[in-house]
Amino acid sequence: MTRLRIGVDLGGTKIEAIAVADDGREVSRHRVRTPRTYEGTLDAVAELVALTEKDGGGTGPLGIGIPGVVSPATGLVKNANSTWLIGRPLDRDLAERLHRPVRLMNDANCFALSEASDGAAAGADVVFGVILGTGVGGGIVIHGRPLPGGQLIAGEWGHNPLPWPRDEERPGPECYCGKRGCVETFLSGPGMERDHASTNGTRLTTREIFSAAADGDPATRATVERYVERLGRALAVVVNILDPDVVVLGGGMSNMPGLSAATSDALRPWVFTDRVTTTVVKNRHGDSSGVRGAAWLWQVGEAD
Fold first, then answer.
1. Could you give the C-alpha distances from 55 to 28, 58, 293, in angstroms and in order?
2. Which of 241, 231, 140 is closest to 188 using CA atoms?
3. β-pairing verdict for 69-70 and 77-78
4. Which of 61, 90, 122, 137 lies in the 20 to 30 Å Cα band around 220?
5. What is the pLDDT of residues 185-195, one digit of tens each?
6. Tell me: the pLDDT tens digits for 46-72?
7. Neighbour count for residue 264 (Cβ, 10 Å)
């Protein structure tokens, strides 16, 4: 039977599974809607793994990207948007049910690992992967290996304050984490929509904002310009601390036309150097990057 690596992206609305061969070639893929219960989630993952392995003609260890982390102190899931996972021994339960080793990692780290392995940042030594969606997250990959950190919060730039704030940006919107003015409250999709509404009194979706701005509408263009400038400031702090070779943009907001090039320009004035060599690029694998990264978790360690 063929040796495979199985990756699962356990999202809030969908669960996706793929099987990847040793050469990185995808041989099978399935997805289902996410059940909003813990037992239902275990059942769905088990079913997807079975289908994926059947189509792929092999078996292998399982890597899972989740919207949270497993606490090193308790071995239980914490900080998960999918709240039914919180406080549960997800990796242990799946390993027992599926009779194989399981690795869990934050979905932003899986995204960064995917893009560093065979995506937009392939070959780079230090990669920072950015998630810009309904939330804001990040993951770090150094020499092909994810860096989760001792508390598993490495890359969580979304829950730092927006740097160099202007008077009108203080104290900033309230964040679900209990603080105000977090990067996430400005740079998430809902953050852009809120910013546009508070400035113009008109509620538009991010898609509508992008479209109107591309057509030359002054109000939405100003919203996009504020967003890009804030993104440049926020990422400049990451560059000052981590000094990555490549920053890869992911999540729904990364689909904004020209965002990577505009961000490259926007961060330069804030970086503590005379010449910025960090490149900002859009992801290569799109919505598939997280699940591919989950499968690649078994490239960075023994799979037996």
1. 6, 8, 20
2. 231
3. antiparallel
4. 137
5. 999 999 999 99
6. 999 999 999 988 888 999 999 889 998
7. 17
